[in-house]
Amino acid sequence: MSRLQLRLVAIAAVLLVAAAPLFLDPFSVTLANYIGIYALVALGLVLITGVGGMVSFGQASFMGIAAYSTAWASALMDYSPWFGLLLALVLTGLVATILGAVTLRLQGHFLSLSTIAWGLAIYFLFGNVDGLGHFNGIPSIPPITIGSFALISSERIYYLIWAVLIAAMLLSHNLLNSREGRAMRALRGGDAMVESVGVNAFRIKLITFVISALLAALSGWLYAHMGRFVSPTPFDVTRGIEYLMMAMVGGSGYLLGAVVGAALITLLKDWVQDFLPLVAPNAAGQLEIVVFSALFILFLQYARDGIVPFVAKFLPQVRRERPRAVEPLPRRTQPEPGQTLLKVDNAKRAFGGLMAVNDVSFEVRSGEILGLIGPNGAGKSTMFNLITGALPATGGKVVFTSSDITNEPQRLIARAGVARTFQHVKLRPKMTLLDNVLLGTYARTQSGFFKGALGLDRAEEEQARHEAMMQLERVGLGDRPFELAGNLPLGNQRILEIARALAADPILLVLDEPAAGLRRQEKLALAKLLRSLRDDENLTILLVEHDMEFVMGLVNRIVVMEFGSKISEGEPSTVRNDARVQEAYLGGVA
Ligand code: ADP
Ligand code: MG
Asked: Each residue of 12-45: pLDDT tens digit?
C-alpha cells in the first residue's frame, strides 16, 4: 500500500466519523461521545506507557483535576467553559510537572505504585475539599458554547469531542515521527543509550508525562461539560486501571490502539450491563468483574500486544520511501592530527572494595586509532564508561579537547563530540535500522516538541534521514533500512551501533569490542572502514578488541590493562614484545 492510499483510507475514516451522527440513534451517539472521551485518556497512555514504557494508573485523576477545575470555574464562579479549559490545562499541567519531577526518577514498579498513591490521594481530595460539593459533586455545569451556539445535545458535542481526538492523534503521529518523538520511543530499554546520543532522558520523560496528563485534562474538560455534572467517582483509581486496560487491549504501542481499545471496552461494558441482569438478576455487578477478568486473560493469551498490531498483520504494509538525497547536515571540523585530544589522568573507579580502574593515565592523539587491550575483567569497559560519563569516577581527571569532562553528564560529553558503542549492544530492537541510526543525529538537530507535533521540522528531518541513510550505507547495512534492528544477527547489531555513533559526527569514536561476533570477512570490512575513517576523515578512534590480529594490523598505538592498572603502552610491535604483556595477556605464547 502506498502513502497516498493510506491517506485516502484516513480521509475516508474521518468522513465516516463526521457522518456517523446522521445514521446513529441518540443513545449510540452518546456512547460514541464516551468512546471519544476515553480514547483521549487512552491516547495519553499510549504515549506514556506504550511508547515511553512508564506504567501510569493515575490518568483518571488528571482527568478529574481538569473536570473539577472547569466545573468550579463555570458552575460555581460563572466563568466561561473556555476559561475553564484554560484553568484545567494549567492546573493539570502544573500538578503533572510537580508529580513527574518527584516520581519520574523512580525506576520500574515504584513509578507505577506512586501513580496509584497519588490517584487515591487526589480522589479523596475531591471528596473532602470544602466548596467542591464533597462526594455529592458539582451539578449544573453549563454547556460549552461556540459563539452563541451551545453544545447542549449529544450530537452537537460529538463533533467537538471527535475533532479534538482526531487533532490529538494527528499531532501525536507527527510527534512520534520527529526528533523528540524518536527519543520518546527510545526511552524503553534504559537511559544509558539515549543519554549517549545527547538526550536528556529525564526531560523527555517529564514532557511525555505532562503531554499524557494534558490529554487526560482535555478529556476531563469535555467530560464535565457533556455530563454537566462531576463527582469523585469517575476519577477513581479503578477508572485509571480501566483506561490502562483500554490502551493495552487496543495496542498500547499504537495511536489507533487508543481508539480501538476505548471503543471495544466501552461497547463491551455496555453490552455486559444489558445482558448480565438477564442471566443473573441478583449478581450482575459481581459477574461483570468475572466476565471482564476472563476476557482480559484471553486477550493476554492471544493478542498480548493489542488488537491493532494483531489485525495489522493481515493488512497490506505501507510502503516506506527511502530517504532522499538532500543538503547534508553541517559537520564539525576535525582537530589537526597529532594533538592531544583526550587525556586520562590517574583515573580511578572502585566497585565496593574492587578497584576496577586503578590510577590509569594515557592520552589519545587526534587522528590515531588507539587500542585498549587486556584480559577479561581488566577494567577496559569501566575505563570507557569513565571517559564517556556513563559512570562517575572515584578519582582522577579526564580532559577532552582541553575541557575537563570528569564526571560531566553523559549527554554533555556526547554533545562535545564523543560517540560510543557498548560492549553489550544497546539498540532499540523494535525500531528500524534507520530510526536507530537517526537517534545518533539527535545532538546535531534542533527541532523540539512543538515543531515536531506541528510538522514544521520536515526540512531538518529530511536532512537527518539522509545522514542516517548515508551512515547505514557506509557500514554496509544500506540495503534494508526499514528492517527492525532486533532482526539483525548480533555482529551486525554492533555494526549498526557504529553507524549510530557516526551519525553524531563525532570527534572521538569509542568502540567497545566492535568485532566480537563478526565473521572473518566482516572483520576485514570493519577494519577497512575504521582505517578509512582515520585516514580520510581524520576521525580519532579508541577501541577495545580481543582479536589480536585485528588490533595489531589496525591501531597506531596500544594501551594494555590488567587488574585495573595500565601495564604497558606503545606501538603494536613494542607491546607485542613486552614480557609483562606476554605473561599477563597472551599467556606467554605470542
Ligand atoms: P573488561 O571490560 O576489561 O572486561 P570491566 O571494566 O567490565 O572489564 O570490569 C572490570 C571489573 O569491574 C570486573 O571485575 C567487573 O566484575 C567489575 N565491574 C564492572 N562493572 C561493575 C559494576 N557495575 N558493579 C560491580 N562491579 C563491576
Ligand atoms: Mg569489557
From this structure: 999 999 999 999 999 999 999 999 999 999 999 9
Residue-number span of the structural domain to which 235 is assigned = 3-312
Atom 13, ligand 1: residue with shortest CA distance:
377
Strand order in the sheet with 540-544: 418-420, 508-512, 540-544, 369-373, 557-562, 565-570
377 C-alpha to ligand 1 centroid (Å):
6
Residue 369 grid cell: 586509532
Phi, psi of 444 (to 5 degrees): -95, -5
How far, in Å, CA of 499 to CA of 485, rounded?
Answer: 12
Domain count for the chain, please give it: 3
Is 276 within a domain? yes
Q: How many Å is the Cα radius of gyration of the chain?
A: 28
Residue linked to cell 453549563: 142
* Cα angle 37-39-43, degrees, rounded to a multiple of 5: 125
CA 260/CA 35 separation, integer angstroms? 9
CB 169 less than 6 A from any atom of ligand 1: no
| Centroid of ligand 2 to alpha carbon of 386 (angstroms) | 13
**Residue 111, domain member (yes or no):** yes
CA dihedral 304, 309, 312, 317 (to 10 degrees): -140
For residue 364, give Cα distances in angstroms to 344, 379, 400, 442, 511: 8, 18, 9, 26, 14
Residue 38 maps to a domain? yes
> In this predicted structure, what is the pLDDT of residue 398?
97
Q: Which pLDDT does position 586 carry in this prediction?
A: 57
Joined together, the cell numbers standing for residue 442 give 539527535
Clarify whether residues 236 and 183 are in a common domain: yes
Looking at the fold, whether 472 and 526 belong to one and the same domain comes out as no
The answer, yes or no, to whether any atom of ligand 1 lies below 6 A from the CB of 517, is no
Please report which helix (H) or strand (E) contains residue 458, including its range.
Answer: helix 458-474
Residue matched to cell numbers 478529556: 219
- Return the bridge partners of 369, or none: 541
Inter-CA distances, 530 with 70, 138, 152, 388, 553, Å: 61, 69, 68, 20, 12
CA of 376 to the centre of ligand 1 (A): 9
For residue range 55-65, what is the model confidence (pLDDT) as tens digits? Answer: 999 999 999 99
Same-domain check for residues 60 and 189: yes
